[in-house]
TrEMBL record:
Residues 114-265 form the DDE Tnp4 domain. This is Putative nuclease HARBI1. Its cofactor is a divalent metal cation. Belongs to the HARBI1 family. It comes from Mytilus edulis (Blue mussel).
Length: 312
């Protein structure tokens, strides 16, 4: 069953339970699909990335029925997205994130790691050039932040492939939230690659590290930030639709990504196995104490403070 749907029987029942109210048909027709049938059709599509017609032929449904089921399940999962993809806002959630990252990677005060990934799509009929990315193929560019377990805590999926990662972040709700609510180093950081500008709440690496503490900072930063790359890899390996070319309109592709991100978090929470992937559970504790930084509150000065205190 997991080979076909990426979930075991109990987890499929769990998914049916959380989306059931939105999928039950108010009809007495014998041909109406049950909640479980709709969920299994959608899971098979996400897992295989096959054409809708092929999914229908192998499961005994016509293409229109498969299309409708995939669309309805996708919308139902997005309706419950905020229950499964949550940014840490309260002190306990923040402390749990900081502890998890510090225990695994020895990097202090981290709330998440950020990056973007390209989902390959068929060239759209409208505004086609905007979807050609720097590698020359059509895509949508999706931003995500994950925690120390590889679960997504924030996603932004609505940009064409030519959009730069930094622009997606700078215009995102997450960036606005951090600009408004982050009052300093104690409130936590996110780690990003050199495609992002160094901000008080977003650390990138030193471009030309010369001193020992800067080099050690860069190594720890890269090691910690690799969790988001692994999360994308697991997501695309579990849901192959995101790994192949998606033959849908860009806005539908973005919605499918969101639904798969919800399912990804559900799979990790329920310890659904995946080949070559092992989940790591981190015991919670109090976060490492970071000395107050009284200097100029900009990204580069805060980065240097962290590097000197923890990586000297």
């Amino acid at each position: 069953m997991r080979i076909r749907y990426r979930f075991g029987r109990d987890s499929i029942a769990y998914i049916c339970n959380i989306v059931g109210d939105k999928l039950r048909r108010s009809t007495a027709k014998e041909t109406a699909l049950t909640v479980e049938q709709q969920v299994c059709i959608a899971l098979r599509f996400y897992a295989s990335g096959s054409f809708l017609q092929v999914i229908g032929d192998t499961m005994g449904y016509d293409k229109a029925t498969v299309s409708r089921a995939v669309n309805d399940v996708t919308n139902a999962l997005l309706d419950v997205k905020d229950n499964f993809i949550q940014w840490p806002k309260d002190i306990n959630s923040k402390n749990r994130m900081k502890c998890g990252f510090h225990r695994q990677m020895n990097f202090p005060n981290v709330l998440g790691c950020i990056d973007c990934t390209h989902i390959k799509i068929q060239g759209p009929s409208e505004d086609e050039a905007a979807f050609v990315n720097r590698k020359g193929f059509h895509s949508v560019n999706v931003q995500a932040v994950c925690d120390y377990e590889g679960k997504f805590t924030n996603i932004s999926a609505n940009w064409p492939g030519s959009t730069h990662d930094s622009h997606i972040f700078n215009t995102s709700n997450l960036c606005h939230y951090l600009e408004t609510n982050n009052r300093g180093l104690a409130d936590g950081l996110i780690l990003g690659d050199s495609g992002y500008a160094c901000r008080p709440f977003l650390m990138d690496t030193y471009l030309n590290p010369r001193e020992r503490h800067q080099q050690r900072f860069n190594r720890a930063h890269s090691s910690t930030r690799s969790i988001i790359e692994r999360a994308f890899g697991i997501l695309k390996r579990r849901f192959h639709v995101l790994h192949s070319e998606v033959r849908m309109k860009p806005e539908k592709v973005c919605r499918v990504f969101g639904a798969c991100a919800v399912l990804h978090n559900i799979a990790l929470t329920r310890n659904e196995p995946l080949e070559d992937v092992c989940g790591v559970h981190v015991q919670q504790d109090q976060p490492v104490q970071v000395p107050n930084f009284e200097g100029e509150q900009d990204g580069r000065h805060i980065r240097e403070h962290i590097a000197r205190v923890f990586f000297n």
